[in-house]
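pinned: reference chain
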Amino acid sequence: MPYYLTKAPYWITRFGEIGIVLPIAMALTLWMLLSARSVRPVLGWVMALGLAVLVTTLSKIAFIGWGIGIPALDFTGFSGHAMFAAAIYPVLAYTLAAQWTPSRSATALVTLGGYALALLIAWSRVHIQVHSVSEVVAGFALGAAASGWSIWHMGGVPARPRSVRLRWALVGLVCWLTVMPLHAAPSRSHDIVTRIALELADRTQPFRRVDLHGYALPQT
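pinned: its structure tokens
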């Protein structure tokens, strides 16, 4: 298999890293505030994303600190990459499409493209053996619920900003998105969550996936 194909999942998975998606979410929120006629859709978006992040983080802390998981499903917590991807990219795609086409069907098609990208990122987490299928499905479902609720709460196609510069700023955000995974430093968010979990649980070692199933991996 060509080298670039073997490395593709590792490149794709970076699109779900918090160090890349969180700045995108912040920039998108600022853009919404500058262009929206009402602050309510923006608050709905922020609250939905915040709730999804909270649930994901708590699930990780519960396992790392106390070993709370579901052995039958090989579940140790929601996949953060899958959650962030499904929560942010569809909203970005929806907002971008709505600025350049009056067609609701076209906007819906582009929004589905955002979900397709999120699915690809979710698949990459399983492919590189970082998460189980159940963790990725749960993370994607949580993020999709957040983005779906946010898009519905926007109440139709977002209003186009009066300033043409704002519309092109959104395009610039998308261009930045395509470049960031090539240059951004790897995210250390999992290390931060691990330290928090160990402090709260008063442990020196985190629970691992092998602990969930009650066996040790064979020595190699």
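why pinned: Confidence is low (pLDDT under 50) at residues 1-5, 216-220. The chain has one domain: 3-213.
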